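My hope is that you will study the protein record below before we discuss the fold together.
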Amino acid sequence: MQGYWTGFRRFSEKGSALWLVLALTLATRLALILILPQQPFSDGAYYMDRARDLITLHAYQEEGLPTAFWPPGQSFLYAGAMMLFGPGLAGPLIINLLSAMLIAWLVVWFGTHVGHNRAGGIIAGLIYALYPAHIAYTGTVLSETASTAISMA
């Protein structure tokens, strides 16, 4: 077992280990988005509706009235993405993919610096890259992925 750990530690010191974590993060989430596309529901539907209102009506409102029922940050983020990539789900899902990549990089960075061990950071990044709940959240237009990335940064 000691030989495997030594080999992994040597591999983790190379830049290719970080690229492996980032590639796994992107591949798993992109596969989910393409194989099991999700329609907005619950909070995600609300964010998308408010984002469309921001683009078309230039107002953060619900049923014609200004609202502060939910914080507007996610809707503003999605409105910006929709202005760049079109009115569909592509923009918000690209935001989620980029956020997941940032989280993966930050997990490796934190794991490396807090534990003073690059191998530990790579293991933490691999766990994040392959963790089913985090993969699933990236395929939905909910706030968890983007808000986690913003909080960690």
Remarks:
- Helices lie at 2-12, 15-35, 42-56, 73-85, 90-115, 118-130, 132-138, 144-152.
- Strands lie at 61-62, 65-66.
- The radius of gyration is 18 Å.
